[in-house]
Design a protein that fits this description.
mainly alpha, 14 helices
Length: about 280
């Protein structure tokens, strides 16, 4: 009798262990990913203004290492056909610092803070999103201009890097406004895709951020915050006027990133879980 009870107990333990192994190995469903990001978005919407400002400024400063990384590779790599693909690995450096460091980057907020609104749309929620977007974007730009001044008017970086920095900046900001807008849409989609994948990544976040942000650079897509460093560098050196900076680059890229991250990716994400979220309610 005792042996039979022991066998049943062992069988039950083995079954529980097997179920735990299956659950641990199973991928998160789209609904669960949506819920994780939605809760993150709600937490972001509740953060104090001062925290958002400092985190946003820090992100604007740290994202400059994307431009600096590219400039370092461009300066020291030999001039070969493959150099372009290698130098764009430098673009990932700033994004790794910002995303893994959990700093406030505007283009991440085009999906995280919108998901709560999709579940419970209201005028109040929309106002909270606009508040966060405005604070974070302004803080990102302040950080971008602050680090651009340091790069341009101090000895913080070697002088031999400046030609590459200026060349990268002129290329990024020199596109026609319509082209800048269209190039910003894929960048917005790719950043939103990173945010969407992060909840189910345990050890692979570094590589996902590395590859997807490299793709933004290699594809010559435009990103409003990283591009703001390039815009600011040209502005503080007297090579870009206010009108061209605002209407030729900043606003078109901003709109393109929002279209890609919010209008396209977020609506697609909502579409695939909408009925499940309704059923859950």
């Amino acid at each position: 009798m005792a042996n039979a009870q022991t066998d049943r107990l062992e069988a039950a333990k083995e079954k529980i262990s097997d179920e735990k192994s299956v659950n641990d190995a199973a991928k998160l469903s789209p609904r669960l990913i949506y819920e994780v990001i939605r809760r993150d978005g709600e937490e972001e919407l509740e953060r104090p203004t001062r925290s958002l400002i400092w985190s946003g400024i820090a992100a604007g400063i740290m994202i400059s290492f994307s431009v600096l990384g590219e400039a370092i590779f461009r300066t020291y790599l030999p001039d070969t056909p493959s150099s372009y693909l290698i130098e764009n690995l430098g673009y990932s450096l700033g994004f790794l610092l910002v995303i893994l460091g959990r700093m406030q980057l505007f283009t991440e907020n085009t999906i995280t803070t919108v998901l709560p609104f999709m579940v419970s749309p209201s005028r109040q929620m929309f106002g909270r999103i606009c508040r966060l977007w405005g604070i974070v974007l302004a803080a990102n730009v302040v950080g971008a201009f602050a680090i651009a001044i340091v790069y341009a008017h101090t000895s913080a970086i070697p002088s031999e890097l400046m030609p590459a920095l200026m060349s990268l900046s002129e290329h990024a900001v020199g596109m026609p406004a319509g082209e800048s807008f269209m190039r910003a849409i894929p960048a917005g989609i790719l950043i939103a895709a990173i945010v969407w994948m992060l909840p189910q990544l345990e050890n692979g976040a570094f590589y996902v951020i590395l590859v997807f942000t490299w793709l933004i650079a290699a594809g010559d897509f435009t990103h409003v915050v990283a591009g703001s460093v390039e815009m600011a560098l040209l502005a503080v050196t007297g090579n870009l006027g206010f009108y061209d900076a605002l209407f030729g680059f900043f606003l078109p890229v901003l709109c393109g990133n929002v279209v890609g991250g919010t209008v396209i990716f977020t609506l697609m994400a909502w579409g695939q879980v909408r009925d499940e979220m309704v059923d859950q309610d």
